[in-house]
Amino acid sequence: MSIDRRIIYLLVAIVVTIPLVIKITMPVRVSPPVQLAYDKIDELKPGSVVLLSTDYEAGTMPELYPMTTAVLRHLFSKDIKVLLMSVYALGVPIGAMALDEVAGEYNKEYGTDYVILGFKPGLDVVIVAIGEEIRDAFPTDYAGTPLDALPIMEGIHNYNDISIMIDLCSGSTLDSWVMFAQARFKQRLIAGCTAVMATSFYPYLNAGQIEGLIGGLKGAAEYEKLIGSPGVATSGMPAQSFMHILILVLVIIGNIFYFIERRRKI
Amino acid sequence: MGTVVGTWIAAFLTLCIFSFLYRDNPFYRFAEHTFVGSSVAYLLIQTWYFTIYPKLVLPVLKEGFTQNYLLLIPTILGIMILTRWFPNLRRISWIPISFTVGVGVGLAITGSIQGILIPQLKATIVPIDSWNIVIMIIGVVTTISYFYFSAEHKGILGVSAKVGTIFIMIFFGATFGYTVMARISLLIGRMHFLLHNWLHLI
Fold this sequence. Notes:
A: 52% helix, elongated
């Protein structure tokens, strides 16, 4: 038996759209890795400095952008200063967009409460350079202003001046942050990643190399719950659950027909 | 106004990409090529403004060449890499590539040992005070035994490798589950964009 794959695509579209349109709500249970990430950020004192690297591009925005805004809301609500950078060229405008969206809600000012350092190619070399002097990697900010002209950068030179580094990544950039920033410079790390990458990063969490892990849209929804600000990730969870049910049903139906066909052949 | 135009362009390109689900068509290819072209253009501009201009052009313009003569080395290496476009000169590009590979491998070897291998080993050498630790130790030992190919997988090694296979399959299963979740999340993100930002239905 064969079925036109376009029928399955249509079913998928219907199952994703209906929960979004009729706004079904579902409880979100917070998992320990996300709780850890939240707790570590929550423990920071006002005025602490966090380095946030948006190491992802448009292709993974649906998963990581809600995570970025949720983390930024938490940071700004705690009056924590944010240095934003990316090792992906397209990661910078995405991070800047998230800052534009969130900074206004908390009356945060560019140059005083947050800064966009920009993009720099050469992942490992950039991470090591920040360990020596952040100005070696980023002499100016995103707009070309020298870092010394920005009040937020006063007294910030390397990882010693950064409380926590948060890597929101779609690929394996976290490996480099762990290898160099954490292992070599003892920089505390928290990771947020696409669901695909999550299983690869759990060993870092278990070994204490990262202090928290936010995985995929589900992780973003959990973070939104923790900060008490449900957003896009939370509204996407019912669609996610219904889709999982559909996939399970399709797998079961596929298997039933497979065994029926096999028996017929025998 | 700019936001509205941007939203309509994004919605149009999203629908162009979705049209591939029906079958390959010129709209899909237009969106695909637009994405690749704009990404490369953006990367080029970013590299110029954040690397080549501040690190090479600006210092030479401000302080002169004699103060920055060392910049000649990365400049020449950078130009040499462009010889890959010319079949007769291609071999010249091997020099900067060798340099890049050398630096990358050097960093990766020390980084992997210091940053991944040793900390991960340390994390498995812990007091056996819970069932989770017992399962972890069994998982680590049997999975490693699966990748031991210097002896035939028979007897104890065979049993261990078989148990290791189960742990590997559990990892693959978890990864596949997460992958499905990730792909659905991407679809949810696009549908949310179409229904919320574009059509204002939600």
